Amino acid sequence: MLHEEDATFYTCASEAGACMFDTTPNDLMVAAMNTKDFDNLNLCGAYVKVNGPNGTSVNVRIVNLCPDCNEGHIDLSPSAFAQLADTSIGRIRVTWQVIDYNVAGPIQYHFKEGSNQWWTAVQIRNHRYPIYSVEYLAGDNSFKKINRTNYNYFVQSNPGMGPGPYTFRVTDIYGHVVIDSAITHVENGTIAANRSFLPANSITTHSLLSH
Questions:
Q1: Where are the domains of the chain?
Q2: Per the count of CB atoms within 10 A, which of 59, 104, 176, 195 is most buried?
Q3: How many Cα atoms sit within 13 Å of 34 on the Cβ side?
Q4: pLDDT in tens, 89-102
Q5: How far apart (Å, rounded) are the C-alpha atoms in residues 176 and 203?
Q6: Maximum Cα–Cα distance for the chain, whole Å?
Q7: pLDDT tens readout for residues 166-193
């Protein structure tokens, strides 16, 4: 879906945002999304192509929320905005859409500080498309959906997921599924998965999200 609205930039783009990803000082091609399109964190980690004036474009990763932005509005890092226009302009008209971004390596499971076998908090990183759902294989050999929190971790508690290792089933917004086994629990650590999501031409382009 192609959106058309204004783009601005925000000066604190180097800080951790609402998606609670680690800061990436060496990669500041990031952006904050308006509340409507942010869609309760569903757009966290999505890659978006932004088309600016005079044929310019830039790819950015969504890491933050812009609560005061109108629907369709995207708030870019200064570095990303500068790829489209001089920052002295401050505001430009753009179009943007979620894209299939060829990330390097498989998806990653990041366990939150304080995560343990009784309160297990995991975040999915390094994915082509936004994440629709995360499930884990429970003791009864069935997959259980893990609820996403307002700080962008999928948290299972009462009971937790146990000490691990875990089997996860991750679904992106286009219905493509990755199942990973033998994922060990490392508090405040990141575990590389065994698989990645397939590119766009291998899957349906109908989004599972409401919008």
A1: 3-98, 108-202
A2: 176
A3: 16
A4: 999 999 999 999 98
A5: 7
A6: 59
A7: 999 999 988 999 999 999 999 999 999 8
